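Ex. 9. Protein: tRNA(Ile)-lysidine synthase.
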Amino acid sequence: MTVKHSTLAQLSGQQLLSLLEQAVMPLYQQTSLQHERTPKLVLAYSGGVDSEVLAYGLSAFAQKYPHIACLLIHVHHGLSPNADTWVQHCITRAGYYQLPVQIERVNVDKGPRQSLEAQARDARYQAFDRYLNPGDILLTAHHQDDQLETLLLALKRGQGPKGLGAMGAIQAYHHAWLVRPLLDVSREQIEQFALQQRLTHIEDESNQDDSYDRNFLRLDIIPRLKQRWPSIAVTAARSAALCAQQQDVIDDEVSHRLPQWLMLASDDNASITESSGFKLSGFGQLSAAWQALLFRGYLSYCGVSLPSQAQLQQILSQLLAAKDDANMAIQWGGYQVKRYAGVAYVLSNSDLKTPEPLSLTVDFIRLLKGDITELQIDIGQHQCLLSQQISADKPLLALAPTNSKVTIRYGAAGSIKCQPQFATTQRPKPRELKKLWQECNIPPWRRQHIPLVFYDEVLVAAIGLWVDKRYLAQTGHQGISLL
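Predicted structure tokens for tRNA(Ile)-lysidine synthase:
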């Protein structure tokens, strides 16, 4: 049930409490059943008039439901000379509301080519995230006029239904919930309520700076729109809701179609070192619209920031035109897309950095030589431990000869040969490393990340992949498990 405040002259305290109850209680009951602990309510508390009104309502809610924990969080961005004064205001008001408050100080990167608004928002939500447990509910004081601003900004950026859907009243947020109880309430109603209840609030001087896009809309554009069309915030919210509804249908259909295009690590042809890829076989036969929707769905599945429409079109064009052996890489932000063996992979730039050279510890060398009876060593994401060979089903690397030189390296010449334990009888001889990479479906950009074990100058194992047949521990003998 939604309260339509556009028909109300004023917002009352009872209506404010009702809005909170309608938004929060179903989620509270749902998450209480799913988690052993009961969820808490966390309010993003700036001290501005919007969050002040919501804090007032949360105070009434806390008195009615004392068993539900509530918390105010105020973020000190350090961007205004008045920031310390605002902190004191929030502490004082929290005492008045009888609600606990937490002050979080953050650093906002004010570098070139970066939106200060976006950087401050990211820092703010990172601060909120530190207080959210699974099932908790984050409350923000976004209202109907904020929704109109968000919709206009989405139009300015050329966004599709997802962007035009603007903000949802209730939506999943990481492992918690994000709830906007005031989304059907106008700015005018909020200000009237604050005046009626004599609520003191802070005025951020940056709100008058129309060099920021939101302030430009709020100060110059939206008042003129409302002057001509008084109900535009209401009708724009209706359009946003329709766009969001259509996006939900699209997302649902994409979620049903996407799995057939995913190459998961458990697939027989999937690389052991890749978590997921996107199969390209038959992808070019789809319509351009479905190509864009499915690949964007894959990027969302991988949890990466989405490219622009132009960047996405460039990615799809190059993916479909490139040959399988082409060394292609399309970059945006901190990510890039690569192609290997008919599969596309999205990777972060940090994933592609060459690992630091390994420095072997004395204990590790002793482990490989069997001088100690029990020790586990971590090599990156792998574990090496001393075990006893029970059967050939679990290959173990034989202990190194006493006088041999043991090294572990990242990367080796493709001409170096090895004979993995999985080699067939038709290939009884050692094979070149570059052929083994292909046989294991290891993409070129991952080959420099796999630790290789050498006894003297002989390649005896690739950690996590194989052990050379000639260096397998015999049944009943000790060996090294390379997981």
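Check your answer against this statement. Residues 362-482 form one domain.
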